Amino acid sequence: MEISAAQRRLLEAAVDAFAEHGFGGTTTRDIARRAGRSPAAVYVHHASKETLLYVISLEGHTAALSCLQRAFDSCADPEARLRAMVSEFSAWHLDHARLGRVIQYELHALSDEHRAEILALRREFQSLMVAALDDGIAAGSFDVEDVDGTARALLSLCIDLARWFDPALSRHPQALARLNADLALRMVR
Amino acid sequence: MEISAAQRRLLEAAVDAFAEHGFGGTTTRDIARRAGRSPAAVYVHHASKETLLYVISLEGHTAALSCLQRAFDSCADPEARLRAMVSEFSAWHLDHARLGRVIQYELHALSDEHRAEILALRREFQSLMVAALDDGIAAGSFDVEDVDGTARALLSLCIDLARWFDPALSRHPQALARLNADLALRMVR
DNA sequence: GTCTATATGTTGATAGAC
DNA sequence: GTCTATCAACATATAGAC
User: Fold this and answer.
1) pLDDT tens, residue by residue, B77-102
2) Pick from B143, B157, B12, B78: which is nearest to A186 by CA?
3) What is the mean predicted confidence (pLDDT) over B115-129?
4) b/e per residue A89-115 (b: at least 16 CB within 10 A)
5) The dihedral of CA B59, B60, B61, B65: what is its sign?
6) pTM of this prediction?
7) From CA A159, how far away is CA B170, in angstroms rounded?
8) How far apart are CA B127 and CA B147, in angstroms?
9) Cα distance from A152 to chain B (closest Cα, Å)?
10) Using alpha carbons only, what angle is made at residue B149 by residues B130 and B83, rounded to the nearest 5 degrees?
11) What residues of B are in contact with residue A162 (Cβ under 8 Å)?
12) B102 to chain A: closest CA residue
């Protein structure tokens, strides 16, 4: 299903509004106003406020997962691979802080079916990180006692950036991504 | 200002509701129902829905900060101190996951003045963690390049637990707190 | 596709009886 | 303090003109 320019504009307006006020605190009028449209225009292009969040969550998770997968595929060496994964996944949450905030903290507002679909996607992040750790352990590069827990912690380090990062206030995101990668390598060896 | 039993019950109901549906997605009727009261009873004990969130945020941040401060004070040795801080602060977010979710992710719904007050409190978490790292560096126990960034990452590790932890599904919070402490020490040496 | 106008239900908060 | 009843504003979503 293709997404038209008008749909895209409303989705971007919804991301901004949801990130700023939360799903429940956002009105469809606000979304319409941010997109420069009338309140009725929202429903020409999207079925409901909830489906806006669903499309945002689906696209956001897919993009973030692609980012992590690309980093996973980019290297064979376990250390370089983990560095790439943490650095790129951190950078994604810094470059898309508002989108990241919505997809990480507004899951509760999805319908049960939509939420289940998104939660299934989320398990793949953990699987990828576990695979990267297992590889490093098998190669003798990593010393990790609790693989699941360490994978969770590595993802936490990246995801939590979206909670507080403000591109208008914070120092260069590249330094943050690099620091997280440095810390990640310390955590596994 | 003392808080009566009726006020307390409504505050606890509000924490549950805000954690489940977000501030904007929660109705005062829902809060009243959870507390076993009529919708009007909310306004006998609290001035507004926003002041409920404010009191929750203030008490929550104060409690979490006390937790971190107690851990800071509990040890003189830099390594034992950092272990205590990360372990106790993690455990706090596991034991108070719903409260943690509200105070970490619903700040946007506070009035400007209330939010400024809470943000001032939040800077003390960072200061405490920086002090713990500086001590360890001065004592020659820690090797940390970016003190501010590492302190931020250590707090992230603890705080992000509140995002996903579900006491009904995850059975070993102590193991999570201990793992975070182990990872923290790896991050600084 | 665009809009204005509006149907229909819900919201935060209040009035006033007890 | 408790409640029922309610207000005025606002919500999501739709109807129908253009």
Assistant:
1) 999 999 999 999 999 999 999 999 99
2) B143
3) 98
4) bbbbbbebbbbbbbbbbbbebbeeebe
5) positive
6) 0.98
7) 20
8) 11
9) 9
10) 50
11) none
12) A105
